[in-house]
Amino acid sequence: MISCHEAVGQLWEYLDGVVDEADRALVEEHLSRCRRCCGEMEFAQELRRTLAGSVRTEIPADVLLRLNQTLEELD
Keywords in UniProt for this one (predicted)? Predict the structure, then answer.
């Protein structure tokens, strides 16, 4: 099984469907067992929906704050 760091590192590619089958299986196995990373995935999915829906509107300050915090955690 891959680590949380590895799973989160591949999360955006996983959501975009650009990881190969072997990596997809590893990420899915990890997500099936790790609540924390499932939360990261839910956040990423919500962020994508928010950004897609706000193409013509300004992103709310609280959303930007959460985005920046998540990006800092990934470094």
Answer: Transcription, Transcription regulation
Taking the whole predicted model, whether its pTM rises above 0.70 is answered as no
Token digits for 49? 């929906």
Q: Which of 5-14, 22-31, 42-51, 53-62 has the lowest mean pLDDT?
A: 53-62
Handedness of CA 17, 36, 63, 54 (dihedral sign): positive
Q: Which tens digit of pLDDT belongs to each residue from 49-73?
A: 888 876 666 778 898 899 889 888 8
**Single-letter code of the amino acid located at 21:** E
Distance CA 69, CA 75 (A): 10
Rounded Cα gap, residues 60 and 56, in angstroms: 12
CA-closest candidate to residue 72, choices 64, 39, 45, 7? 64
